Amino acid sequence: YHDLMQMHVYDPNQAFLGEVVELIETGAQLVLRIRGESEWLLPYTKAFVKDVDILQKRLIVEPIEGML
Fold first, then answer.
1. 58 and 7 in contact (C-beta within 8 Å)?
2. C-alpha angle 41/38/24, rounded to 5°?
3. How does pLDDT run across 22-31, given as a tens digit for each residue?
4. Which of 42, 44, 52, 66 lies 20 to 30 A from 3 at CA?
């Protein structure tokens, strides 16, 4: 999971949303703290995380309305 730190986060349209600044282990799942124009939390699940590119340090996510 530590490879996720400082990854750049984008939506499916390639719009930059922020950077992963913290990993929070809740017991049920991993939660990413993302800092961009604002700071928000994203569960690290297939429902939200669509693609992970470790080499390019990129996450493609699909947040739900109101999450950002």
1. yes
2. 25
3. 999 988 899 9
4. 66
Query: Which is nearest to 47 in space by CA: 31, 27, 26, 24?
Result: 31
The pLDDT value given to residue 64: 76
Q: What is the DSSP letter of 64?
A: P
For the entire predicted model, the pTM comes to: 0.87
Cα 39 to the chain's mean position, in Å?
Answer: 11
Q: Are 13 and 64 in contact (CB under 8 A)?
A: no
Residue 13 backbone class (left: φ over 0; alpha: ψ -120 to 50; beta: rest): alpha
What residue has token string 């703290």? 33
Strand order in the sheet with 58-61: 39-43, 30-35, 16-25, 8-10, 58-61, 49-53
